[in-house]
Amino acid sequence: MRLSSLVFAIVASLLHNPLPAGDVIENNSRVDEGRRLAHDFDKGNCLACHAAPTDPQAITKANIAPPLIGMRARFGDRQALRSQIWDAAKRNPETIMPPFGRHKILSNDEIELIIDYLYTL
Questions:
Q1: Domain residue limits at 85
Q2: Structure confidence by residue, pLDDT tens digits, 83-111
């Protein structure tokens, strides 16, 4: 029921706030590299906690954290998603999400690549 509520909220958000046509990620190599980093056990390892149900390459059924779905609708402001990845504790001090940027697990460029990938989900 929780996932269906999330999906409904995302669809409703898209209907009321459609994405600009020019905001599509054009460079598939950036998306591919972002996917690789997000799936990499030594880097992003996003799939350890997040399910990515719209990514056919993501075979995990992780459910520790919210699913990676409708990311562009949920984080229309790219900087908000960047901040979440950089250090989620700023928004939620009790989070278990590692501060990927603050702890230098991911570089600035790697975070940008992951965002390119997440915006395809």
A1: 2-19+28-118
A2: 999 999 999 999 999 999 999 999 999 99
